[in-house]
Amino acid sequence: MNKEIKLSKNTMIVSETNSKGHIIYANSDFCKISGFTKEELIGKPHSMVRHEDMPRAAFKDLWKTVQKGKTWKGIVKNLCKNGDYYWVNATAYPVEKSNGKHRFISVRIKPTAKEIENAQKAYKKLLKEEK
Ligand SMILES: Cc1cc2nc3c(=O)[nH]c(=O)nc-3n(C[C@H](O)[C@H](O)[C@H](O)COP(=O)(O)O)c2cc1C
Predict the structure, then answer these.
(1) Residue 3 lies in a domain
(2) For residue 131, what pLDDT is reported?
């Protein structure tokens, strides 16, 4: 059985992507919780940690928001290397580099039990609609 990995209060999972969503930076908490090494994460599409319980609509909304220059917030269920999973309270936002290119950063902290419960309900509904 795949189990839930619970974040601690001081866990902060950080990643940065290029404009195509390929991971260009991952911090040590990302590696610790997901079980992937930095080498395994860097250069890969961020969808490598997508959990099948996550509706595509959530990420469409994330991309639409950050591409408009805005900050996106949401509750996300992610996949670990060994099939376990973890819930995060995620914030994603764009940064413009001096060369005019855009990159995207996401910072993730421990969600509350209520936030997970609400997200689970909403995503179940969305997933059904997507099938
Ligand atoms: C800064 C940033 C962080 C992201 N973090 C995650 C994440 O933690 N988990 C995830 O499944 N997708 C994340 N995504 C979204 C993925 O790029 C992708 O859209 C998503 O996994 C769905 O895959 P798909 O676009 O192939 O349908 C992130 C995107 C950005 C820009």
Answers:
(1) no
(2) 79
Which two three-digit tokens encode residue 93? Answer: 């936002």
φ, ψ of residue 77 to 5 degrees: the values are: -105, 125
Quick: pLDDT tens for 13-40: 999 999 999 999 999 999 999 999 999 9
Distance CA 110, CA 62 (A): 19
| Residue 53: domain span | 13-130
- Sequence length of the chain is 131
DSSP state of 68: T
The ligand 1 atom nearest the CA atom of 93: 1
- Torsion angles phi and psi, residue 45, rounded to 5: -65, 145
14, 19, 20, 50: residue to mutate for ligand 1 pocket, most atoms within 8 A of CB: 50
Q: What percent of the chain is predicted at pLDDT more than 70?
A: 100
CB 41, CB 30: distance < 8 Å: yes
pTM above 0.85, yes or no: yes
Distance of CA 50 from the midpoint of ligand 1 (Å): 7
* CATH code for position 72: 3.30.450.20
